[in-house]
Structures are given as C-alpha cells and as structure tokens.
Specification:
Layout: E1 8-13, H1 23-34, E2 35-36, E3 41-47, H2 54-58, E4 62-68, E5 78-82, H3 86-90, H4 97-111, E6 118-124, H5 138-141, H6 144-157, E7 163-164, H7 182-189
Length: about 190
C-alpha cells in the first residue's frame, strides 16, 4: 500500500488528573502543537475514552499510542513496544481503568477484523500516579521530547513524516483547551 494511502492514528491516552497518568495525553498534545502531520495522519487525545476509541482504531492501518505504563523500570524510562507485543503491555499491570479499557479496545478491533496492521506503544514508566490534580513529575515530563522523536521516526518509517510548524498553532486548533492544556494546568497545579 502506498504511504499516502496508509491511515495512521497517533493517540495519547491517560488521565491528566492523576500526575504521571497524563503522560500520553501530554505527549500527543505537544506533538500536535509542534508538528503538522500529513493528511493521512489523525492526531487524537484519547484521554480515558476506552471502548469509544474502537471506531478510530477500525479506520487505522497504523497506530502509535503514548501512555504511562508500569514496565517495572526506573521512573521516566521510555520503552517502545511494537505489533503483537503491544496488547501484552497495555494490560500487564493495571494502573488505571483506562489501561484495561485500551486492551479491550485492541481486542474489540481485532475481533471485528479491523485492528491496525502496525502497532507501536511508546510507554513511559511513571513515578507518581497518586497526586490528584498534580502535574507530571520531572522524570516523566523530561520524556515528552524523546517520545515525540520516537513517533516522528515511526511516522517516517511508515512514509508519513510530519513537518515542524512554521507558525504557531491557533488556539482553536489545539487538542486541549479551557485551561486543561499542559501549560495552564501545570501552572494551576503548582501554586506560586
């Protein structure tokens, strides 16, 4: 299949209200802010939508997922898992309700015969999942840029290299608004 015909989904999942649990959402938000993706690439904040994401997976040939995953590594370590290994890690250690939900999303898409052909999970080992309303911890926040770089490499491998934006993203085009975007949320989470 020609690269331009591949439908690619770049998805961030997690809950921004539980500190490092918001890693996936924050990565996809920053990726979208910095990069313009080709028309065949959809960038989505999946949050904690669970089974509501099945329709998006059914439409994708390739999938990149960003998430906080307990790999049993040092806090802040990134790990890339691909293809048939992905389902193992999305349910290996339940850290939140959305992870089980995402494993179910993959299973549902697979049962329907519409699971993406290529899967890539960019996971970050969390440090803190208990800080309600708290920001990402330092070790996890430091992995946003490397996670974006991994995604750019994957997209290039799949023939859909994103381009750095030359003009700032308009507020109406951002993935998150209403003061829950990363900068505003963390400013409120860390009072002066």
């Amino acid at each position: 299949m020609p690269a331009a015909d591949k439908r690619i989904l770049v998805l961030g999942i997690g809950n921004i209200l539980w500190a490092d649990e918001g890693f996936g959402v924050r990565v996809v938000e920053e990726f979208h802010r910095r990069y313009a993706a080709p028309d065949n690439v959809t960038v989505l904040d999946g949050g904690t939508q669970g089974l509501y994401l099945v329709n998006y997976l059914e439409e994708a040939d390739c999938l990149i997922v960003f998430d906080a995953i307990d790999y049993g590594l040092e806090p802040g370590q990134l790990k890339l898992v691909r293809d048939e290994e992905v389902p193992k890690f999305t349910g290996a250690k339940k850290m939140s309700l959305h992870q089980t939900g995402f494993q179910e999303v993959l299973s549902a898409a697979d049962l329907l015969g519409r699971c993406p052909e290529h899967l890539a999970l960019v996971g970050c080992q969390p440090l803190d999942l208990e800080d309600w309303g708290g920001p990402l911890t330092g070790p996890v926040r430091a992995q946003i840029e490397p996670a974006i770089e991994m995604a750019c490499e994957l997209l290039a491998q799949w023939g859909s290299r994103p381009k750095l934006r030359t003009t700032p993203l308009a507020e109406a085009e951002r993935l998150l608004a209403n003061d829950i975007d990363h900068a505003n949320f963390e400013m409120r989470a860390r009072p002066a």
